[in-house]
Amino acid sequence: MTTAARKPKSEKAAFDVSIFLNSVVSKKRIEFRKRQTLFTQGQPARQVFYLQEGSVKVAVTSAAGKEAVVAILGPGDFLGEACLVGQPLWIATATTMTPGSALVIEKAEMLRLLHAEQDFSDRFISYMVTRSVRTEEDLIDQLFNSSEKRLARTLLLLARYGKSNQVLTLPKVSQSVLAEMIGTTRTRVNYFMNKFRKLGFIEYNGALKINNSLLSVVLRE
User: Of 52, 56, 44, which is closest to residue 83 (Cα–Cα)?
Assistant: First the structure.
């Protein structure tokens, strides 16, 4: 008598943060237009945003009025999570760069979800650790790499480098913003962008497209 082959157990479906948060009752969905302020530096920090569509610029303004762009976030990113660890006021201003949408979750509800929902908590912690590593890499990049390498790395990160396709479309971002992000002048950014275009690393055709070959600039000694 032959023994029937056992069927392999089906793998647990991957946890989808977007689907989960859309099913949460205590949240609201907002749609935003281009150049809309989601929150302002110095205002009370009471919510966490989960971006579904569009891109958002996060910038800090000094007492002298100088602005520095510290991050550009897109779909799947969280925003404002520092309020969860006691930050009473926003330390930056979040401004939309494109039309899009986001889920807004109050601080108390977000804390409840993190305590009650293990899968969500695991994914959120993983996300925050990844963001922390990215911040450290940004600092190292700023300290040790040339402005050309910093620009190439920033373009790849903004285009979500690592996708399977070879050409990545970049959310619309001005050369002035890129200059603020990498700590150089707009003139230098313009020079390097033209250089990258002539070498075939990027394309201008209505939208800015990034070729994976731009990575060679980052890896160059």
Answer: 44
